[in-house]
């Protein structure tokens, strides 16, 4: 009953995330927290959203603004992926105990 009120796009994202986590677990990945998978899925969603916005853009200036927003968002995702990768390393694991729990990945 609750899922009837959830937008279809969000439902698709949740189902896809669940499916990817299941694949990670079945392939016996070292870390199955899903953060890496979530970041990859976010990148694909960002790309699809940008393609949709570009198709609806009416001017060259608007297209430039969309590309700029896409590039900034992509850089943020890459930075988050770098932080995630670092947290999986031995050094990152040792530093993890010094980071407050609400800030850790």
List keywords for this structure.
105 residues, flat
Provide a concise account of the structure shown.
The chain is an all-alpha fold and 105 residues long. It is built from 4 helices and no strands.
Q: Could you tell me how far the N terminus lies from the C terminus, measured between alpha carbons in angstroms?
A: 32 Å
Structural class from helices and strands? mainly alpha
Counted beta strands: 0
Largest sheet: none
Helix content percent band: over 70%
Global mean pLDDT: 78
Number of helices: 4
User: What's the alpha carbon Rg, rounded to whole Å?
Assistant: 17 Å
Unreliable stretches: none
- N-to-C order of helices and strands: HHHH
Shape: flat
Q: How large a portion of the residues is in β-strands, by DSSP E?
A: under 5%
Q: What this model shows, in words?
A:
The chain has 105 residues and is an all-alpha fold. Helices cover 72% and strands 0% of the residues. The model has no long low-confidence stretch (mean pLDDT 78). The radius of gyration is 17 Å and the shape is flat. It starts with 7 loop residues before the first helix and ends in a 10-residue tail after the last helix. The longest helix is centred in the last third of the chain and has 29 residues, at 60-88. The protein has helices at 8-26, 35-56, 60-88, 90-95.
């Amino acid at each position: 009953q609750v899922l009837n009120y959830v937008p279809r796009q969000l439902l698709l994202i949740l189902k896809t995330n669940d499916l990817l986590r299941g694949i990670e677990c079945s392939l016996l990945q070292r870390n199955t927290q899903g953060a890496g998978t979530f970041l990859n899925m976010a990148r694909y969603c960002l790309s699809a959203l940008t393609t949709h916005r570009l198709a609806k853009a009416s001017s060259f200036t608007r297209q430039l603004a969309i590309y700029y927003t896409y590039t900034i968002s992509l850089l943020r995702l890459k930075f988050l992926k770098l932080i995630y990768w670092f947290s999986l390393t031995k050094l990152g694991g040792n530093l993890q105990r010094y980071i407050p729990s609400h800030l850790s990945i």
